[in-house]
From TrEMBL:
Gene that encodes it: rsuA
Species classification: Bacteria, Bacillati, Bacillota, Bacilli, Lactobacillales
An example Gene Ontology molecular-function term: RNA binding
Domain of life: Bacteria
NCBIfam families for this protein: pseudouridine synthase
Protein source organism: Lactiplantibacillus plantarum CMPG5300
Gene Ontology terms describing biological process: enzyme-directed rRNA pseudouridine synthesis
Keyword Methyltransferase recorded: no
Ranges of residues in domain RNA-binding S4: 1-59
Coiled-coil regions listed in the entry: none
InterPro entries, sorted: PsdUridine_s_RsuA/RluB/E/F_cat, PsdUridine_synth_cat_dom_sf, PsdUridine_synth_RsuA/RluA, PsdUridine_synth_RsuA/RluB/E/F, PsdUridine_synth_RsuA/RluB_CS, RsuA_PseudoU_synthase, S4_RNA-bd, S4_RNA-bd_sf
Stated name of the protein: Pseudouridine synthase
């Protein structure tokens, strides 16, 4: 692999910054100065340093984003802004992708990675990673209505849903809407909106606050992202390995 590609892939800097670091003599490979970005290195066995800090090879990258309303959950789109457009040039890699999807008008926690196996396991129906949403719903919703979700409901198109747990957070009397919290264990298309639709009401605001054991980090503003901590990643991997029903 070219050393400049390696340094960029390890998020040392943009392509231009990496070129400059090489030109200015900041990079060594196996103790020898690197003079060209074209120089080939083996990321698994060669030792690369940026000044006196070793640049270690990392295969997988994991981020948690607070997806804002108005961007789509996709890697590319010819017209709309995507969640990948929110990455800065140092962190962006073209193999990153979002794990699952949130609607354009939904905000909240979204995991972005280049680890296809983990993503597959998290989304697999065999693991049923739990997701928690806060929804603003038209009208006054009662606990009895939400109790219907406990046994699993059938949507208008015949889709049968697994049991879900929902509770009332607050009824906003003046504006006449109810904030509810709902926990689902699958990820059907527009699932929360369609569940609320069975109550004869509409979702007017939707925010995902939990994905598996990951909680939307306090202080992570909409549109921002950060790398997962080691503890968060360990917990997420445990979620992905959880057998059904546990
Ligand atoms: N359910 C929905 O209706 N929309 C989302 O974005 C996520 C869950």
């Amino acid at each position: 692999m070219r050393v400049d590609k390696f340094l960029h892939a390890m998020r040392i800097g943009t392509r231009t910054q990496v070129r400059r670091l090489i030109k200015d003599g900041h990079i060594t490979a196996n103790g020898e100065p690197v003079i060209s970005g074209k120089q080939q290195i083996n990321p698994g066995s060669d030792t690369v340093f940026l000044d006196d800090v070793q640049v270690r090879y990392q295969q997988y990258f994991y981020y948690v984003m607070n997806k804002p309303v108005g961007v789509i959950t996709a890697t590319t789109d010819s017209a709309a802004k995507t969640v990948m457009d929110l990455f800065n040039t140092t962190d962006f890699r073209d193999d990153l992708f979002p794990v699952g999807r949130l609607d354009k008008d939904t905000e909240g926690i979204l995991v972005i990675t280049n680890d296809g196996a983990l993503s597959h396991d998290l989304l697999s129906p065999n693991h049923h990673v739990t997701k928690v949403y806060e929804a603003e719903v038209t009208g006054e919703i009662t606990a009895a209505q939400l109790a219907n979700f406990n046994d699993g409901i059938t949507l208008k198109d015949g889709t049968e849903l697994q049991p879900a747990q929902a509770e009332i957070v607050q009824f906003h009397e003046i504006e006449n809407f109810t904030t509810i919290r709902i926990m689902i264990h699958e990820g059907k298309y527009h699932q929360v909106k369609r569940m609320v639709g069975t109550l004869g009401e509409r979702v007017v605001g939707l925010r995902r606050i939990k994905f598996g054991s990951l909680t939307l980090p306090v202080g992570l503003l909409a549109g921002n992202y950060r790398a997962l901590t080691d503890d968060e990643l360990t917990a997420l991997k445990a979620d992905a390995n959880q057998p059904v029903g546990e």
